[in-house]
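Hey everyone, long-time lurker, first post.

I ran two proteins through the pipeline my lab uses and got sequence/structure pairs for each. Pasting them in order. The first:
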Amino acid sequence: MEKVYIASIVNSQKKIFTNICEQNNLQTYTMSNESSLIEEVLEIKPDILFIQTSLLETSDDNPIEKIKENKELENLWVIIYGTRDNGMEMLPRYEGDYYVHLPYANLQMEALFRQLLNKPKLILIVCKDPQKFESLHKRLLNEKFEVIISTSGKESLDRIKGVFPDLILYDEKIKDINVVSFCETIKSTQIINHIPFVVLSDQRIAENAEQYFEVGVGDIFFHPYDSNQNIQKIISMVTPPPKGKKLKALVVDDSQAVRNVISKMFKQLGFSVATAENGYEGLVAAGKDKPDIITSDYDMPVMNGWDFCSEIKKNPGLSDIPIIMVTTRSTKIDIKKGEALGVVDYLPKPFKTEDLQKIIQEVITRAKEEKKNLLISKYVSTDALKNAGDVVEGIKERKPESKFISILFSDIVSFSTLCENHTPEWIVNLLNKFFDSIIEALQKNNAIIDKMIGDAIVARFDTGDKAADALYAVKSAWDMLKTLDELNKTSDEALQIRIGINSGEVILGNIGSEKHRLDYTMIGDNVNIAQRLESNAPKKGCLLSEATFTLISEKIRVGERQVYTVKGKKEGVAAYILRGFNE
């Protein structure tokens, strides 16, 4: 059960929030003494803090900042509440996550708890013809959303303050209030201007799109409205960040005024912000805070913007952080220099805050996409990614092909026994160290990691040169065995592996179900032979087929030719134990 602490000096307000929290099965605590507020919060360690505006405004120090200095509370959700119409403006100043306007407390709290407690999200669809959006409505219900439909813009404005939806989908064809006027009204109303707003349109007119985005429209969905892409966007829009988790921004500029403007804008977007007044201070701050995004001026004392960017890109732990250059220098040469130093975008001074805000949102979206692609690449082989991209782009059809390649199988000897004798955490840590070392040995020999199954690795060598691929496979096996010897010197428990290698024709392509999941992989008799050779290989050894040996016989040393009986083959399979390489 999550814990809530309510900081209020008004008993009636305490009662309102206590009742709402208890109705949502939250363990509730209330402030007993204003002077001991910080001590009480530090002792209780709540998940959510409700705090009255007057407690913040009358305090010499920011109590929330003091509370969040405690590592266990740095991700605390902070809800500021009061009667001020402009209370949202307090959030950046006091590191708040949400503002509750007391006249609407019950309704706002219901919306808030949908976010905090992961309850079904509420979507308002404002449309001229509900039948036209019936498929979207059904799809949203199937995705466990709650949906309200309204056919009037004016009626919707009243309903929004009555239900505080998590997302508004607005039909471009609504006549009584057009898109621009409706969105302007939403964005100018403090208590609802945080609600994401999406236009539903059946015409792709550039002028309309520009006008919509200028007034604060978050996105435009085109027909089919219930497409997987649109549904995924909706899920992303209404899914809250991890509790209390904020993206970090670093603002580097020697002008206090510019730092304040950019910092305020970042805070309004939900970032936590660090600042620095020159490149050297920025470098120290970046190393300490590891920000998600950096904005930097060019002309600064001590260390200028270019030197700062250069130092950031030299540091492996910081080099992936996107940097936006905000400066008076805007010549083509300056922009080219920025690109060379990894500057992802460039905004000349003087700038409009909405322009910088748009750039920041684009950069963060791009960075998230790159992180997602990097993560995907750890689960999917490189040629599978390329194949998927080619299919999407229409470069080639999704047809399997027959190719001559070399195949390598390896697994850990007695892995099941190892699992029985150790905890799951120990096994996972061991495997991760093992894979980190072994995969590196494979990749330096042009291996494509086809898959990893438990403790097993399946790799293929597919450059198009039969002899080269066979040699790459054998060198990989040799390097894997040597790498494992080194790894065992520092390991609690020594590992042993077996390796099998074969060369020949395989079927390579997308295997699986068109409707559910495709796996870009290899199948065929030669794949099976490689796997069977691996199971027959000696501990800490490699067994290679005669087909592989024939391709590179002059370059390697092997044991005597032996014929092995393997499962699924009537005739035996000739193979050799790898002994080394000829000079």
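...and the second, right after it:
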Amino acid sequence: MTKRTKKVGVTGKYGTRDSTRQTSRIDLLTAGQVPEITETNIVAASYGASLRKQVKKMEITQHAKYTCTFCGKVTVKRQATGIWDCKSCKRTVAGGAYTVATPAAAAMRSTLRRLREIAEV
């Protein structure tokens, strides 16, 4: 068995790590070089592109405005997880975590409507 070598940081073709050249976030803030934080760069690069796309989709859907089923205006916004408020008619609706109507709820509504129509005929 061979003896393990001590790891000294980034070496080889990438060069050596120079601790004197590291700049702090405060230095970057004063220079105006800190990148803007958006939905996609909240998730680190190590998680991959597919997870970044999923997070972006969730962020867009949860911050969007939706149509109110009571008054018909596009004023429904997310208050908390699963709680949606209409700013116009002041109604509160329970829905999904990221959208007002989940696919399961939409399927249930259509099934109930179909069964109600069958019962009337």
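Reply from user beta_strand_b:
Welcome! Quick read of the second one: The helical segments are 25-31, 49-63, 103-120. The longest helix spans residues 103-120.
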